[in-house]
Amino acid sequence: MHLSDRSKAVMTTILVVLIIMLLLLAAEGLTRVRQYFKYGMVPSINSMVVEPKTGLHIPRPAMETANIRINSLGFRGPELIMPRQAGTLRIGFIGASTTYCAEVSSNEAVWTELVARNLESATPGLSVDYINGGVDGYSTNQSLVNLEQRLLPLRPDIIVIYHATNDLSGETRKLAKKAGIGRTNLEVGKSFLGKYSLLWSLVEKNLAIMNAQHSTDAEMLTLERESLGEEFRKNLKQLVRTARDNGVKLVALATFAIHLREDMTPEQQSAAMVSARYYMPYLSASDMLAAFASYNEIIREVAASTGAVLIDGHNGIPGDPVYFNDSVHFTDAGSQAQAERVANALHSSDAYSELIATVLQE
Q1: CA-to-CA distance for 25 and 97, rounded, in angstroms?
Q2: How many CB atoms lie within 10 A of CB 333?
Q3: Residues 40, 15: contact at Cβ < 8 Å?
Q4: What's this model's pTM, rounded to 2 decimal places?
Q5: Among 251, 249, 252, CA closest to 359
Q6: What is the full DSSP assignment across 306-339?
Q7: pLDDT-based confidence at 34, cuts 50/70/90?
Q8: Strand 158-162 to strand 250-254: parallel, antiparallel, or no bridges (unpaired)?
Q9: In this model, does residue 41 exceed pLDDT 50?
Q10: pLDDT confidence of residue 11
Q11: Are 73 and 82 in contact (CB under 8 A)?
Q12: Average pLDDT for residues 311-318, to the nearest whole number?
């Protein structure tokens, strides 16, 4: 029995479709394997949960992957002894993905852990534990709730605040929309396929970045630095005030480190802006540098006006792929450098010395 030409065409079409589907499934599998070996996990709805009390998205409590361990309270790091033991200094860290540090090789390489170990080793008899309150995507708005509802009940002695990039991208996105600039990448990765396919989501994001890199001047946002960051300033002050009103003895504000630098070549700047271009495709390199500089100046102003300890020296972390995984997230080396500047600033603070003396006398 011979097949007709039409039947042969149908079978050929089905075979081609099956081959394409198998290739796409293989590519998806390879992408997920690569993600696992690079970050220890594959993004999943199971990695984050909504906490009923606060409505916040938090890491799934007791989750463990190849390089990430979440404690039973939903914080990246070791379990906490409750109540806090006498002679133990407890530090709470407030921030977003740059504090959570999914990109580093292990919990032990996260800068929050390294700060705790640095402070502990510098003072004989002192025990230090910590709460890593960093969560992907948080701005200071979410961190205000996180501080009040999740960290403060754990009675930290110190709060270290490290924020900028998510507040900046949120503020400039609103400005871009107001200016009539079309695509702001809010919708990228939220397509039907992007929600379920890591490969498709990465393709969407990379296309968005390529599109941003070829944007014309007419599609770029012109910043007015003097009006930038008012809500950020207000929220930072509220974070400091809330911490102090609830018994935190020392609050520290850290300026924000980025990969991008003014003295880079255009090619180096483009590479340094790889993830920032995704979130803020309407900013040129010079405007992005100016925007982060404005936010860092606000951090300094708030520290001065509130009496919080200032952790400066962010540019001491070199603008180099050795230290940055992308535009703002640290490698292991960058995390180590961040920990050193945070620990050094605390060591240099009279308020910290007085606090340590009190803790050791407990």
Answers
A1: 29
A2: 17
A3: no
A4: 0.84
A5: 249
A6: HTPEEE--GGGS-SSTTTBSSSS-B-HHHHHHHH
A7: low
A8: parallel
A9: no
A10: 72
A11: no
A12: 98
Stated as kind and residue range, the H or E segment containing 158 is strand 158-162
Long-range (24+ apart) CB contacts under 8 A made by 215-222 are 215/281, 215/282, 219/181, 219/182, 219/282, 220/181, 220/282, 220/283, 220/284, 220/287, 221/172, 221/175, 221/176, 221/179, 221/181, 221/282, 221/283, 221/287, 222/179, 222/287
Task: Name the pairing type of β-strands 57-59 and 48-50.
Answer: antiparallel
Q: Mean of the per-residue pLDDT values for the chain?
A: 87
Task: Name every residue whose Cβ is closer than 8 Å to that of residue 94 and which is 6 or more positions away in sequence.
Answer: 133, 134, 143, 146, 147, 151, 159, 160, 161, 162, 163, 239
What does the chain come to in residues? 362
The percentage of the chain sitting over the pLDDT mark of 70, rounded to a whole number, equals 81
pLDDT class of 42 with cuts at 50, 70, 90: very low
DSSP assignment of 32-55, as one string? HHHHHHHHSS---GGGEEE-TTT-
What is the full DSSP assignment across 175-199?
HHHHTT----SSSTT-SHHHHH-HH
